[in-house]
Write a structure and sequence with these properties.
single chain; 231 residues; alpha+beta; 6-stranded antiparallel β-sheet; 5-stranded mixed β-sheet; 36% helix; globular; disordered N terminus
């Protein structure tokens, strides 16, 4: 199932909602302003005809809820990863001066500043982390866009090195199959060495559970100093 099919499901849901909006409004009004008479039918107050009408209305509401839940389940389960929470972002402050990442490629070594990285195009993602608590908000650039900028987009894998010389090999599938982020900010603030900067890798596992594995957990490299082409 592709994204176009999700759009068809969305249109279908909107059509059902419009069809049943009157019944929904009646239901909510009855619940909050009419002492729940949708569910309780005192003999002295309701005729058999009114009971039948209310029963039809409730069957309509139940049908609406059932089909809506089914369609949403199909849309979410059938296309994992097709809809992501990642979105464009705007830097709220200037990046820290003097912070760079060394790129080791086939043509030599270059230093890329964080300002040059962010000029590629900031993106924002909300996710959880295997190393930190709660939902976290990161801003940065897509790893695939970074590699294209520095001429490593054809690499099958790259080596990411941290300040403590911790290294991890990142395979091509990690940046082509999903929005792997090279984060430069958290909650809008530039990352520093104290906050695991100047750049770090972020796997958006909240929207891409395929990244939530023990192998990927080791690839959450922070305090990155260099990114190297594997020969």
């Amino acid at each position: 199932m592709q994204l176009e099919q999700v759009n068809v499901l969305t249109a279908y849901l909107l059509g059902i909602f419009r069809l049943h909006i009157k019944s929904l409004l009646t239901l909510f009004t009855s619940l909050f302003f009419n002492n729940r008479r949708v569910f309780v039918f005192p003999r002295r107050e309701l005729s058999g005809v009114k009971k039948t009408c209310e029963g039809d209305r409730m069957r309509s509401i139940r049908t609406f809820c059932t089909f809506t839940l089914a369609a949403m389940t199909v849309a979410v389960c059938a296309v994992p990863g097709s809809v992501s929470a990642i979105e464009p972002a705007v830097a709220e402050s200037a990046p820290l001066p003097g912070t760079t990442v060394t790129v080791v490629g086939d043509d030599g070594t270059i230093d890329v500043s964080v300002a040059e990285l962010e000029a590629i195009g900031l993106m924002r993602v909300t996710t959880v982390s295997p190393w930190e608590k709660g939902e976290l908000v990161f801003e940065g650039i897509l790893f695939r866009d970074f590699l294209k900028k520095v001429g490593l987009d054809d690499a099958e894998e790259v080596l990411v090195r941290a300040t403590d010389n911790y290294t991890q090999t990142i395979p091509r599938s990690d940046w082509t199959d999903g929005p792997l982020l090279l984060a430069t900010r958290q909650n809008g603030k530039p990352l520093t060495l104290r906050t695991q900067g100047p750049v770090r890798l972020v796997y958006p596992i909240l929207d891409h559970p395929e990244y939530d594995t023990p192998v990927h957990k080791r690839r959450w490299v922070w305090a990155i100093t260099s990114i190297e082409h594997m020969q």
